[in-house]
UniProtKB/TrEMBL annotation:
It comes from Streptomyces durmitorensis. The keyword Transferase does not apply. Pathway: Amino-acid biosynthesis; L-tyrosine biosynthesis; (4-hydroxyphenyl)pyruvate from prephenate (NAD(+) route): step 1/1. This is Prephenate dehydrogenase. The lineage of its organism: Bacteria, Bacillati, Actinomycetota, Actinomycetes, Kitasatosporales. The keyword Protein biosynthesis does not apply.
């Protein structure tokens, strides 16, 4: 927002956090002189209602919004506090990091990502417009939803997957080092969000327990059936083994059918990018040089993945590009001395 010319005033109950964010260029940690246009409350879900009630009673802004990962609970808490909700809109940007705090923030975090808005019939139009302006400034894509429908949707696409990621990662806690050092990209993808702060997630899950429990119970049924199928695969009986194989194939095929529904970049239909894999030494500046050389070759990089080889000072950078740009990028990088993996 600050880089787009918006005056941003930062406040936090830990002044050190606001100071750090201000030092990173996010705004100023000085209080505004008068009423501001929009007050954005970005505190843990359990503190959203009380924080909003405080700022709304002090009349600090024309409009108020929060960004908490759950929407039904905070609204009901505010209603119970007897606050006039017309200048408030509940929102949720569907993008984040597994790390919290100002040092984990990036200016482009919300670019191209859905940002859910949950206005009601009573929401002030001016406040809805202010929220839409905020979403546009962050280059996110506004999606209007009912608060409870939002909570059921995020249980499916965020809260249940978070717990499953934690459960997979938990298997590694006491595993042998010889096994853990074989970790590749697959397990990194599945466990990335398990690194998140448990305190924030206890808050999020406490505010949405029912829908998450329903989904996890469906996952438990799949798990039971898959264990039965795998046990059948161990049988000496041919027919039983065939039954087991069919059971395992079933869950893998249903996984394929679900996976292709995951939207690609900018919420559009998934694009099949081509991977150009470059072998790099683990030295400072290597990534910046690759990106600069890709730019020289006139190729837009759509996404990047980095795979570190265990115990080696080397890594594999996978550059994802439009299929028609892949040969140009490969040739351009080879010309500049990069080692391309087929
Ligand atoms: N981290 C993520 O990926 C996403 C988080 N959210 C939501 O955004 C909100 C903030 O999360 P993060 O920025 O990740 O957490 P964070 O921990 O980085 O920031 C929360 C800040 O709130 C401050 N705080 C706590 N209680 C307060 C109070 N009563 N008054 C004033 N400040 C208070 C804390 O000192 C902290 O600096 C949460 O509601 C979360 O559900 C939404 C989308 C993504
Ligand atoms: O790290 C990721 O990919 C996330 O999806 C993080 C995230 C965490 C909480 C949210 O409410 C929304 C997004």
């Amino acid at each position: 927002l600050a880089s787009r010319g918006v005056a941003v005033h930062l406040a936090d109950h830990d002044p050190g956090q606001a100071r750090t964010a201000a030092a990173l260029g996010a705004g100023t940690d000085e209080a505004p002189e008068g009423r501001v246009d929009l007050c954005v409350v970005a505190v843990p879900p359990a503190h959203v209602a009380a924080t909003l009630a405080d700022v709304m009673r002090r009349d600090v802004a024309r409009g108020y919004l929060d960004v908490a990962s759950v929407k039904g609970g905070p609204r009901r808490e505010l209603e119970a506090l007897g606050i006039d909700l017309t200048p408030y809109i509940g929102t949720h940007p569907m993008s984040g990091r597994e790390r919290s705090g100002p040092l984990a923030a990036t200016a482009d975090l919300f670019e191209g990502r859905p940002w859910v808005l949950t206005p009601t019939r009573d929401t002030d139009t001016e406040v809805l417009n202010l929220a839409l302006e905020l979403v546009a400034l962050c280059r996110a894509v506004p999606v209007v939803m009912d608060a409870d429908a939002h909570d059921r949707a995020v249980a499916l696409v965020s809260h249940m997957p978070h717990l499953v990621s934690s459960m997979v990662a938990a298997r590694l806690e006491n595993a042998e080092e010889t096994a853990v050092r074989l970790c590749g990209q697959g397990i990194r993808d599945v466990t990335r969000i398990a690194a998140s702060d448990p305190r924030m997630w206890i808050d999020i899950l406490s505010a949405n327990p029912g829908p998450v429990a329903d989904l996890l119970s469906a996952v438990a049924t799949d798990l039971d059936e898959t264990v039965t199928a795998l046990r059948a695969l161990q049988s000496a009986d041919d027919a039983k083994r065939r039954e087991g194989a069919a059971g395992v194939e079933g869950v893998l095929r249903r996984g394929n059918a679900g996976q292709i529904r995951v939207p690609g970049k900018h919420g559009a239909a998934p694009t099949a990018y081509e991977v150009v894999a470059v072998l790099i030494d683990d030295q400072p500046g290597q990534l910046a040089r690759i990106f600069a050389d890709a730019e020289r070759a006139g190729v837009n990089i759509e996404d990047v993945r980095i795979e570190h080889a265990t115990g080696q000072q080397a890594g594999l950078v996978q550059l994802l590009v439009e299929p028609k740009a892949a040969p140009t990028l490969t040739a351009g990088l080879r010309e500049r001395g990069w080692s391309i993996r087929q």
